[in-house]
Specification:
alpha/beta; five-stranded parallel β-sheet; Rossmann fold; 470 residues; AAA_22; 22 helices; ATP hydrolysis activity; three-stranded antiparallel β-sheet; P-loop_NTPase; plasmid; ORC1/DEAH AAA+ ATPase domain-containing protein
């Protein structure tokens, strides 16, 4: 079979505001980009998802006539692997079912910025594959997700903070949508509000010196200074001249979990120095840290001179969460609120559990709830295991004690129960504070203040007792 070597796109690129997308044209472009023809099942899957990326595999199967397990297990993975190989680096994320809608959205957006002379020529593979490459004055597309429900108030709040403060931290639980919210804001408003947007994941906890080098290279600084202070000064001069947004994702990697955090909170002491420098020195730019944990330096700065602020992202509101269930075709809407309560409105949890319910129980929420169990998505489970393994022995003892309890408990009872594993009441207070900040312990406040675990954390701890260590 002859490979699709090149193609003319079309005289008029569909804009993002148009209600319909020409799926055939998009599929032809994607075929040229990955340098092979799609099979019939791949075309069917792509056409259906281009029109409605929120559909699950069962819904796609119903529309196309192919078996759900075939689409999910064979057809989809091959497409995602090919797209990631060609577009993954320039798009900024691995491409899969969950962010396919966003990938297509960004693809069309980039096409709409191309001149007509580019669009009307016969394009070859490398030209289409490079559509995501940022040109002069552009910024790389931030990673995002096709699932994004509501959050209009949160988008507005984040925008106000970024317009008022030099340093902002966006914190929240695993899967609550911190990265998706920040990415959606930069997608919609970044180019209008800032001259330049730079997005970097620092999950690998780079040394401050290396991180500064990478940021300076993003600004095309040719000769990098040797000393840390000089690098900070050069970056400061840049963000004084230009209005820039620098987003550092997975910033919790910079916070130590096994040390005396009040005295030595960061993986490198220079990070504290950098945070204070970029918050206190006047400039016209903003730094956004996306993190599961709060930065105490940011909290202190916000109290002192309002140069910094923290925004905590909570779960979805019920109406927003219900849109996830509707998109997945779940039944028994009267039981949906119970699901929202169990999973605290966390969108990643709700999407995963909806897929389980659709596949195993044909969409019946009632049948799933009858099992009286909690399912933790694999990726979320692994993140919690890693997080718990990194904390010290006293903190783990507290978590395992709370997991063994049926109901939340008062502080006084914890003092009695943990008399042998906690050195003092002050140690218990610090442990509760740290674990609450890490979103591992929940505090309930009605007539009395009680401490416990949410169902997800409890399930992980009870299912994987080895994370308790020796």
């Amino acid at each position: 079979m002859e490979k699709p070597r090149k193609t003319a796109i079309f005289s008029q690129v569909p804009t993002l505001e148009e209600p319909r997308i020409d799926a055939n044209i998009l599929i032809r472009l994607l075929q040229v980009a990955i340098d092979r023809d799609f099979e019939a099942a791949e075309v069917a899957l792509l056409k259906t998802l281009i029109q409605d990326p929120c559909l699950n595999f069962q819904a796609v199967a119903d529309k196309t006539g192919y078996q759900m397990y075939y689409l999910r297990g064979q057809v989809g993975p091959r497409l995602w692997a090919d797209f990631t190989e060609v577009f993954g680096r320039s798009y900024g994320a691995e491409i899969g079912k969950r962010n396919f809608g966003d990938f297509i959205h960004c693809f069309l957006e980039k096409l709409s910025l191309m001149p007509n002379s580019f669009l009307q020529q016969d394009l070859e593979q490398h030209q289409i594959a490079q559509i995501f490459e940022p040109g002069e004055g552009e910024w790389a597309i931030a990673p995002s997700e096709s699932w994004f429900y509501g959050r209009s108030k949160e988008l507005d709040s984040l925008g106000k903070l970024l317009s008022q403060y030099r340093l902002v931290t966006l914190i929240g639980d695993v899967g609550v949508g911190k990265t998706a919210l920040a990415a959606r804001w930069t997608e919609r408003f970044g180019a209008k509000s800032f001259d330049r947007v730079i997005w970097k994941s620092i999950a690998h906890a780079p040394e401050p010196d290396i991180l500064l080098n990478e940021l300076l290279q993003e600004f095309e600084v040719k000769e990098l200074p040797q000393k840390l202070s000089e690098k900070m000064s050069v970056l400061m001069q840049i963000i004084k001249r230009q209005r820039c947004l620098i987003v550092l994702d997975s910033a919790e990697s910079l916070i130590r979990t096994t040390a005396i955090t009040a005295l030595d909170p960061y993986t490198s002491p220079d990070y504290g120095r950098m945070i204070r420098f970029f918050a206190e020195e006047p400039h016209q730019s903003s730094l956004l840290f996306i993190s599961r944990r709060r930065f105490n330096d940011v909290l202190r700065l916000s109290r002192a001179n309002r140069a910094a602020a923290t925004m905590r992202l909570e779960g979805l509101q019920p109406k927003e969460a219900q849109r996830i269930f509707e998109a997945h075709g779940l039944k028994n809407s009267s039981d949906w609120q119970r699901l929202i309560q169990i999973y605290a409105g966390n969108p990643q949890y709700l999407i995963s559990i909806s897929e389980y319910i659709q596949t195993v129980f044909s969409g019946s929420v009632q049948e799933f709830l009858r099992c009286d169990t909690v399912i933790v998505p694999d990726i979320v489970c692994q993140e919690y295991i890693t997080q718990i393994q990194e904390i010290n022995a006293e903190h783990r003892a507290l978590l395992f004690h709370l997991a063994a309890l049926k109901d939340p408990v008062h502080f006084d009872q914890l003092v009695v129960n943990l008399a042998t594993s906690m050195k003092s009441q002050s140690a218990l207070i610090k442990a509760l504070n740290d674990l609450t900040e890490m979103n591992l312990v929940e505090k309930q406040q009605n007539n009395a203040i009680l401490f416990g675990l949410n169902p997800i954390v409890k399930k992980v701890i009870l299912s994987f007792p080895f994370i308790g260590g020796s």
